[in-house]
Please model this.
Amino acid sequence: MRERAVPDPRAPDSRGSRRTRLWTDLGVAAAVGAAFALSPLTSVTRTLPSLAGGCLAGLAVFAIRARGSGPSLARPRTAPVPRLALLLPALFALLFAPTLASLYGWYTESIWRNAHGLFVPLLMVGLAASVLRRERGGPAESSAWGFAPLLAGLVLVVLDSGVRTLYLGTLGFVLALAGASLLLLGARRTRRLALPISLGLFLLPLPAALSIYLKLPVASAAGTQLFLELFGLPVLREGTVLVMAHNVFGISVRCAGFAIVYAGLGLALVLGVYARSRTRALLLLLAVWPLTWLANSLRTALLILFSEARGIEALEGPLHTVSGIAAFGGVMVALFLMADHRGLRKALS
Model:
């Protein structure tokens, strides 16, 4: 008589695993789509382009994740969540809500500001989830040293509520994250989370005036002059001012590409950490400024060429913003193409 096989209770439920994977993919796609829809990269001031850009970004992310999803493996049980973990989110929401709301207004004001700011939290959460996924099943840990950065962060956000600089509040938020990690996950896991937490520094709303110290306005003007001369147009340059046959153009501090450099450094840092060669990591960081200069100079030259042919009124439409988005995306894509893809997949798998 044939015996009926008894299912192993420890074996993973394939249907449950697939369902969990599906909801995870949908959640990630929805988060990325929302970030694109709310960011100036998809014209946040206009509803239809924002919705279309967010939907396209979400569908693309879901397709990529669904294509790369493999069979789900059994995951070890995790340690019970301490009661403190239930209180900290409410504490963070209460104390840091004004800072986060102000940061959102800063990020979405213009493509020429910190347009990458809305994507930094997604990157932080994604990298932290990748680290903690490999740390499942370990013993519960906690470090009392977490109270020091947590209290320091709370002091900074309270001070910032009076002086309203956003810098103190943002630094306080990052310090509080580090303190919460020490309290909830312990020192060992927090060391593994050093990169995701450190990326919070790229939430700082740095002013575009810093482009002056990077020589971006003058360098962009010189690069634009070079491209215009290659296109066969006579041009006279005086500092950041370009004199053409019909119009005079100036490269302002906001349009010099500092937002691209700021975002590029953050992406190059992440890609460099996961590169298997220190030389490649260094090249990624060193490539940010030249790539920004090249993209912004070519963009400005094409805008001037177009305005010389169609009139200066042509720049009053969305072309100016769209060209900035193209330059921003071009630098990010170039950095990703330069990355160590094999090392990246191995580290995040």
Remarks:
- DSSP finds twelve helices and three strands in the chain.
- Residues 272 and 280 are 7 Å apart (CA to CA).
- The first strand starts at residue 236 and ends at 238.
- Residues 1-13, 70-81 have pLDDT under 50 and may be disordered.
